[in-house]
């Protein structure tokens, strides 16, 4: 019998495979697609570097020439720009003051190949139909489609890394839509985007829009290609009653800096859309299984947190699986510490995102402020695990409460309907 | 330089948008669209640095930011207190 079956060969699954293989635990990665395949989520945060280094993948990132991301820049609708550089807050144990922008089809393939080189058995084009459970409710393997036939594969542990498909979450009916966020993204790749001038031209650029929770990403993919995506409340898209092209172009005109950047831009692939944005599963672990990455939880991508969460959930999940194998205990209780750790970390991202959307000017105010800048930067780099209290989030919450209470506060008109309690 | 001149100088140089550069001490900064809410927060950061004070969040209200003069008198009172 296999030790571990991993469903999905994206960054979460490949990183899980890498860690397990390094620990001498045999594992199989089942990927439904044949890589390379396109994927959204092209920008990272610096905390990812730690995981790349641990699994020996950092030299690959450098060799392949992915664009170095040294910082982030925000453009207010009125034409003001605010930038941060990662170098201002060096993270312990991370020697690079940059992270990466990636072509996900290439990045995901390289990472999957890396897991394979470390010992994971990788099968692409294998569709997992469902996770198998015994009569006690313990996961015992998966049912897959092979050569037109249904075949059962057994393992001591099943890892769901199926991404936004949330295979196990759907099967168990434990996927919960986020009560607040229902964002919708329309995105494509462009040539001839004017990314600005050094040193910020290779940063991620976020352009604020004057529609509900609206913003646009500009992510450099290589020297020629730039990824651009319009994100807003789903209702904004629905009510616009426009096709992708018209909707996209209309929103690019809202922010003057963005309009300038897109002046000569030429689209080079089809528009893609992403809906049902944020969700969480009721449990991330059960008897004989864990969920990692997007298969467990997805939060709004405004701060490029997705890949980092996938990598860290693979790291912490693999540690827990190692203990489970050593103790021969695959119960939900034995796996629970993984869930607690990931929930706490992602809760910090979520709270940061929620406060951000609650009062947009506050974010730029805090990154301009001497007192708060470094702590905000720390969050933006993905330093969210094992944190405990995060005083800067308390300070943001307190400020918002003050605005709500003060009769004539200047920012009162900027408050959105998002609940903060 | 007086408090009001320091403020006026900064607003003219850093915050005023486009054609609205000819600002008087009593001009209504907000309703005339001379500065927006982001500009107000930038002004708060400048004030805290320049005068070495911590401006309470609840004081970022319309009456204190109405004009250069009203902001200057708020600050003069604040520093005396």
What string gives the helices and strands of chain B in order? Answer: HHHH
* Cα distance spanning the termini of chain B: 21 Å
Q: What is the helix fraction of residues of chain A, given as a range?
A: 25-40%
* Radius of gyration of chain B, in angstroms, nearest whole number: 12 Å
Classify the beta-strand content of chain A into a percent band. Answer: 15-25%
Number of E strands of chain B: 0
Break the fold down into its secondary structure elements and pairings.
The complex is a heterodimer of chains A (421) and B (81).
Chain A: E1 2-7, H1 11-22, E2 27-31, H2 48-54, H3 58-63, E3 67-69, E4 71-75, E5 81-85, E6 99-101, H4 104-118, E7 121-124, E8 127-133, E9 139-146, E10 149-160, H5 167-172, E11 175-177, E12 183-191, E13 204-208, E14 215-220, E15 225-233, H6 234-240, H7 244-252, H8 256-261, E16 266-267, E17 272-274, E18 279-281, E19 285-286, E20 289-291, E21 297-298, H9 306-327, H10 332-358, H11 360-368, H12 373-380, H13 391-405
Parallel strand pairs in A: 1-2, 1-10, 2-7, 4-13, 10-20
Antiparallel strand pairs in A: 3-6, 4-5, 8-9, 9-10, 11-18, 12-15, 12-16, 12-17, 13-14, 14-15, 18-21, 19-20
Chain B: H1 3-15, H2 37-50, H3 62-65, H4 68-80
Helix pairs in contact in B: 1-2, 1-4
Protein architecture, described:
- The complex is a heterodimer of chains A (421) and B (81).
- By secondary structure, chain A is of the alpha+beta class.
- Chain A has helices at residues 11-22, 48-54, 58-63, 104-118, 167-172, 234-240, 244-252, 256-261, 306-327, 332-358, 360-368, 373-380, 391-405; strands spanning 2-7, 27-31, 67-69, 71-75, 81-85, 99-101, 121-124, 127-133, 139-146, 149-160, 175-177, 183-191, 204-208, 215-220, 225-233, 266-267, 272-274, 279-281, 285-286, 289-291, 297-298.
- In chain A, strands 1, 2, 7, 8, 9, 10, 19 and 20 form an eight-stranded mixed beta sheet that branches. In chain A, strands 4, 5, 12, 13, 14, 15, 16 and 17 form an eight-stranded mixed beta sheet that branches. A three-stranded antiparallel beta sheet of chain A has the order 11-18-21.
- Chain A is globular.
- Chain A starts with a strand and ends in a 16-residue tail after the last helix.
- Chain B has helices spanning 3-15, 37-50, 62-65, 68-80.
- Chain B has four helices and no strands.
- Chain B starts with a helix and ends with a helix.
- Chain B is mainly α.
- In chain B, helix 1 crosses helix 2 (37-50) and helix 1 crosses helix 4.
- At the A-B interface, helix 11 and helix 13 of A face helix 2 and helix 3 of B.
């Amino acid at each position: 019998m296999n030790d571990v079956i991993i469903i999905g060969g994206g960054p979460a699954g490949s990183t899980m495979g890498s860690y397990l293989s390094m620990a001498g635990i045999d594992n199989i990665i089942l990927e439904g697609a044949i890589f390379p395949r396109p994927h959204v989520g092209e920008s990272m945060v610096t905390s990812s570097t730690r995981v790349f280094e641990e699994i020996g993948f950092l030299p690959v990132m450098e060799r392949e020439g992915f664009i170095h991301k040294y910082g982030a820049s925000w453009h207010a609708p009125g034409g003001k720009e605010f930038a941060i550089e990662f170098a201002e807050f060096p993270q312990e144990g991370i020697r690079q003051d940059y992270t990466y922008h990636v072509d996900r089809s290439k990045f995901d393939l390289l990472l999957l190949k890396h897991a394979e080189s470390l010992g994971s058995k990788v099968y692409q084009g294998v569709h997992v139909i469902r996770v198998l459970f015994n009569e006690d409710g313990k996961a015992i393997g998966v049912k897959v489609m092979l050569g037109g036939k249904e075949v059962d594969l057994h393992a001591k542990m099943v890892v769901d890394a199926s991404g936004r498909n949330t295979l196990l979450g759907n099967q168990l009916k434990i996927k919960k839509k986020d009560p607040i966020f229902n964002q919708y993204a329309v995105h494509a790749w462009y040539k001839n985007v004017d990314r600005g001038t050094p040193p910020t031209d290779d940063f991620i650029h976020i352009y604020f829009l004057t529609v509900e929770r609206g913003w646009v990403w500009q992510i450099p993919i290589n020297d020629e290609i730039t990824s651009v995506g319009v994100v807003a409340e789903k209702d904004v898209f629905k009510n616009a009653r426009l096709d992708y092209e018209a909707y996209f172009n209309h929103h690019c005109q809202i922010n003057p800096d963005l309009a300038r950047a897109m002046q000569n831009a030429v689209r080079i692939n089809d528009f893609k859309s992403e809906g049902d944005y944020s969700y969480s599963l009721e449990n991330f672990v059960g008897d004989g299984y864990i969920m990692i990455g997007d298969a467990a939880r997805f939060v709004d991508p405004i701060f490029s947190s997705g890949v980092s969460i996938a990598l860290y959930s693979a790291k912490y999940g693999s540690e827990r699986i190692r203990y489970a194998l050593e103790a021969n205990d695959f119960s939900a209780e034995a796996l629970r510490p993984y869930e607690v750790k990931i929930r706490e970390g992602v809760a910090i991202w979520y709270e940061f995102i929620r406060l951000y959307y609650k009062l947009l000017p506050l974010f730029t105010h805090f990154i301009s402020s001497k007192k708060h800048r470094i702590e905000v930067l720390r969050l933006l780099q993905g330093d969210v695990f094992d944190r405990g209290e995060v005083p800067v989030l308390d300070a943001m919450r307190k400020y918002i409460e003050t605005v709500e209470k003060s009769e004539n506060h200047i920012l009162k008109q900027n408050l959105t309907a998002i609940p903060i309690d | 330089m007086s408090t009001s001149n320091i403020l006026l100088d900064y607003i003219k140089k850093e915050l005023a948008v486009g054609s609205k550069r000819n600002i008087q001490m009593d001009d209504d900064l907000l309703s005339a669209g001379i500065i927006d809410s982001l500009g107000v927060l930038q002004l708060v950061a400048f004030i805290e640095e320049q005068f070495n004070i911590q401006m309470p969040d609840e004081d970022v209200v319309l009456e204190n930011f109405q004009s250069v003069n009203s902001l200057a008198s708020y600050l003069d009172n604040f520093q005396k207190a």
